[in-house]
Amino acid sequence: MMIKILLAEDTRDLNRALTAVLERNDFEVDAVFDGEAASEMLGTESYDMIILDIMMPKKDGLAVLRDLRAQNILTPVLLLTARAEVDDRVTGLDAGADDYLTKPFAMQELLARVRALTRRHSAYSGEELVYADIRLNADRFELSSQNSVRLSIREFELMKTLMMNVGHELDTEYLLDHVWEHDPEANPEAVWLYISYLRGKLIAVNSRTVISGERGGSFCLEEGLS
Amino acid sequence: MNTLKETAPAEPELKDHVQSPDSKPAENEYTIYGDKLPRMQAALDGVLEAVSEYRKIRKAVHGDDPVEHCLSRIKTDASMRDKCTRRGLPFTQETALTEIKDAIGVRVVCQFLKEIYGIRDYLADVSGYTVVREKDYLKKAKRNGYRSYHMTLLADGFFVEVQLRTISMDTWAALEHQMRYKNRSGRAEDSLIISELKRCADELASTDISMQTIRDMIFEEGAFSKPSG
Q1: Cβ neighbours of B199 in A, within 8 Å
Q2: B188 and B86, same structural domain?
Q3: What is A3-125's CATH number?
Q4: Nearest chain A Cα to B147, which residue?
Q5: Is pLDDT at A197 greater than 80 in this prediction?
Q6: What are the pLDDT digits (tens) for A16-44?
Q7: CB-based contacts of A83: which residues, under 8 Å, 6+ apart?
């Protein structure tokens, strides 16, 4: 699928040059020349990424960005700043920009930043983790080996954390911080219950991997004796 | 009714033994078994007796009946004839009682996962019973997501197919069967429908494990608290 970018830049030559380079690199580009037009496009279209010049007529880039974030739209935003104004960059990042680039810039650098911002997005949804005889699919929250089961969100996050730290002991405190970070009610007993769920589910998919560890202690995903 | 049975070998209509213990099958529908029928009924009663025995034992320990319900049936002539035809076998008493191993069928539906293996072990240990064949569709679900533990017993000279499953597995099997065989539009063959039904089966299986884990935590039994099962 083609990655779709909204470009808002009032300098005509730069706008045309950026559009050409991005299109040559297989991005789909909607180009506008002021902030109001950018907000209008954002109201009707959806984009994988947005490039905003800060200084623009009618509505500046920061205002466009603030409106966007106020609507809870989290599309990655790259800001273009006219000079190396520290204030602009700080304000921009604080307003919810993901990255910035100071003019003048090299096209290669712009392309690299665009790739970085769009990659993060796609890698997050389409991921599949593999370890020994198990697979964890992030699109379907599916744990599979010779059999498959669907996990709850919390089980999935815990399994993912264990799979990304194979061979490393993760203590209960670490898991509470990383898997239950937004839940003030969470306690070591919850960690133990979820470890127990996953152990049952590893058996259910007929995997030879096991989670070692005791209640309240450290846990580690490893290959068991088959 | 006959059309349903014809196309639906996986989910035969069983009569509920708890709710209608005295409903005897109409004799004329079971001619294929000849004079063996009373002995078949006795063999079936023996297996049902063993299941009741297990329920009593578990109830004494836990205070709860581990079995939600228990159904059984003897295959009717019509259903047996269909099966013989499908398998390319002659429709005779000999085939019905030897080649076909589910002339007598029992389905035990449990509340919790571990009871499936509890009943399995109990039945396998009944003196005089031999386990002829076992298929663990819990460990390896069928492609469509179907889960159950199937075991064929040789009990009092007759083959008895016992299907063990949880309430959620039973629910899934019943609803999947209903959608698949009662809908003639062809939509049931749709790959989206098939994969969505599989997803439901995988979610229910996951929930069964969670429920078992919660129960074990309450009773401090520690089902999956050890790294390996």
Answers
A1: 140, 150
A2: no
A3: 3.40.50.2300
A4: A147
A5: yes
A6: 999 999 999 999 999 999 999 999 998 88
A7: A102, A103
Of B167, B184, B208, the domain-final residue: B167
Same domain, B7 and B111: yes
Q: How far apart are CA A95 and CA B155, in angstroms?
A: 76
Count residue pairs from A and B with Cβ separation < 8 A.
67
Residue pair B228/A210 in contact by the 8 Å Cβ criterion: yes
* B94 in the same domain as B14: yes
Q: Which domain holds residue B203?
A: 173-219
Tens digits of residue pLDDT in B54-86: 999 999 988 889 999 999 999 999 999 999 999
Distance between CA A40 and CA A38 in Å, rounded? 5
Which chain B residues are closer than 8 Å to A199 by Cβ? 224-227, 229
Distance CA A163, CA A170 (A): 11
Q: Model confidence at A82, in pLDDT bands (50, 70, 90)?
A: confident
Contact assignment for A150 to B203 by CB distance below 8 Å: yes
A150-178: pLDDT as tens digits = 999 999 999 999 998 888 899 999 999 88
Is there a single domain that holds both residue B133 and residue B196? no
CB distance from B209 to chain A under 8 Å? Answer: yes
Task: Give the distance from residue A33's alpha carbon to the nearest chain B alpha carbon, in angstroms.
Answer: 44
B194 and B149 together in one domain: no
CATH class for the region spanning A128-223: mainly alpha
The answer to whether the CB of A147 falls within 8 A of the CB of A208 is: no
B228 assigned to some structural domain: no
- Tell me: do B127 and B198 sit in the same domain: no
Q: Residue A188, preceding bond cis, omega within 30 degrees?
A: no
For tokens 């294929």, the residue is: B32
Q: Is the CB of B216 inside 8 Å of chain A's CB atoms? A: yes
Q: What is the CATH number of the domain that holds B162?
A: 3.30.460.10
Tell which of B149, B167, B185 closes a domain.
Answer: B167
What is the rounded distance in angstroms from the CA atom of residue B178 to the CA atom of residue B201?
A: 15
